[in-house]
């Protein structure tokens, strides 16, 4: 099978190569998937191999066709059309065939093609887990959530694009941040009630909108730059969820302690990495996302695409991700 390996921590020519490998055989809970399309995420370039590390097959979003299953695999059958975000500790989806634990795989939306489906898994899982498993918002009780507010920092990114839609379905008032007009328009299109600019004074902008505090903050962008502002904006006994790395020391006391704020981390790969008892939850989430897509309650967030899956397009995708100017998701589909 063909596979794309990164050999250095770079998106320049020569940092990746196409190789021929044997098609792996599934065992246990694994299924073998023939990859039709992949989605790109910031994690792709963040885990490229450093100097001295072995070459890596990256890619943490995929849509494909089930070929076979291991001796403990029972959820899917040959020919099922699936999508998933994979496991950061295992070879990724930038290969013609991939082994993946079936418990983190879902049946992809029937209304979408492979490329559009491949844009969804990682961001949808992150958005769902961060809002409903970390902040403990009840998705199925919108009436109880009415009047509660959520600030999404990084609304136009891949995770924010899904979170806006899910939060609206859950009954929340959504304030999304965007720093460019095209990003703001994208967030409004997805259902955000209000837009503020994360490059400006966010607490002041909230006050201008009539909010003293927000009940929840989902920071999908910059922790360091927004930390002090979050301490001002979060409501007493409110909740904050974080997904990105921070580079400076964060003062966890101050307003966060005085307000008894709960602070949560969301890392979508936790269940797969540690084979948690509730690992099947990712299968359940992906199936529910597919249902919401197929009944028109949420829309896919693929906003750009390349073809075929090859070294040149993978490198181009990494460059676009590193520019931090992406809106929605980029996918790459088909093998030459």
Keywords:
336 residues; alpha/beta; Quinone Oxidoreductase, Chain A, domain 1; Rossmann fold; 2 domains; seven-stranded mixed β-sheet; six-stranded parallel β-sheet; 12 helices; 25% strand
Question: What features would you describe in this structure?
Answer:
- This protein has 336 residues and is an alpha/beta fold.
- Helices cover 31% and strands 25% of the residues.
- It is built from 12 helices and 16 strands.
- It has helices spanning 42-46, 114-118, 121-134, 142-145, 158-169, 181-190, 202-209, 223-233, 254-258, 270-274, 281-294, 311-322, and strands spanning 2-6, 16-20, 30-39, 56-57, 62-69, 81-84, 97-101, 105-107, 149-153, 173-177, 194-196, 214-219, 234-242, 262-265, 302-306, 329-333.
- Strands 3, 5, 6, 7, 8, 15 and 16 form a 7-stranded mixed β-sheet that branches. A 6-stranded parallel β-sheet has the order 11-10-9-12-13-14, sandwiched between helices.
- Helix 3 (121-134) packs across helix 5.
- The longest helix is centred in the middle third of the chain and has 14 residues, at 121-134.
- The model has no long low-confidence stretch (mean pLDDT 95).
How is the topology of this model organized?
Elements: E1 2-6, E2 16-20, E3 30-39, H1 42-46, E4 56-57, E5 62-69, E6 81-84, E7 97-101, E8 105-107, H2 114-118, H3 121-134, H4 142-145, E9 149-153, H5 158-169, E10 173-177, H6 181-190, E11 194-196, H7 202-209, E12 214-219, H8 223-233, E13 234-242, H9 254-258, E14 262-265, H10 270-274, H11 281-294, E15 302-306, H12 311-322, E16 329-333
Parallel strand pairs: 9-10, 9-12, 10-11, 12-13, 13-14, 15-16
Antiparallel strand pairs: 1-2, 1-4, 3-5, 3-7, 3-16, 5-6, 6-8
């Amino acid at each position: 099978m063909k596979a794309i390996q990164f050999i250095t921590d770079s998106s320049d020519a020569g940092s990746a190569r196409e190789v021929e490998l044997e098609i792996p055989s599934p065992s246990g809970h694994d299924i073998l998937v023939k990859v039709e399309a992949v989605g790109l995420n910031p994690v792709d370039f963040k885990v490229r191999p450093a100097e001295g590390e072995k070459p890596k097959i990256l890619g943490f979003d995929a849509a494909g066709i089930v070929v076979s299953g291991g001796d403990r695999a029972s959820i899917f059958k040959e020919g099922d059309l699936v999508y998933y975000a994979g496991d950061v500790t295992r070879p990724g989806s930038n290969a013609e065939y991939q082994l993946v634990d079936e418990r983190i795989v879902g049946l992809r939306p029937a209304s979408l093609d492979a490329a559009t489906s491949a844009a969804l898994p990682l961001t949808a899982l992150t958005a769902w887990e961060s809002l409903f498993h970390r902040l403990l918002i009840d998705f199925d009780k919108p009436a109880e959530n009415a009047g509660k507010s959520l600030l999404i920092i990084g609304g136009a990114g891949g995770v924010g694009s899904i979170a806006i839609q899910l939060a609206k379905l859950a009954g929340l008032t959504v304030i999304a941040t965007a720093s460019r007009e095209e990003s703001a328009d994208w967030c409004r299109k997805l259902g955000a009630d209000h837009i503020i600019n994360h490059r400006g004074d966010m607490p002041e902008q909230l006050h201008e909108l009539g909010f003293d505090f927000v009940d929840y903050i989902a920071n999908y962008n910059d922790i360091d730059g927004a930390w002090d502002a979050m301490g001002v904006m979060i409501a007493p006994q409110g909740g904050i969820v974080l997904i990105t790395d921070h580079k400076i020391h964060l003062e966890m006391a101050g307003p966060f302690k005085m307000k008894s704020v709960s602070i949560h981390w969301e890392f979508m790969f936790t269940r797969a990495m540690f084979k948690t008892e509730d690992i099947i939850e990712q299968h359940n989430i992906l199936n529910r996302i597919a249902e919401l897509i197929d009944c028109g309650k949420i829309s896919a967030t693929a906003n750009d695409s390349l073809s075929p899956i090859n070294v040149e397009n993978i490198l181009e995708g990494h460059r676009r991700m590193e520019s931090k100017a992406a809106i929605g998701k980029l996918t790459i589909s088909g093998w030459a």
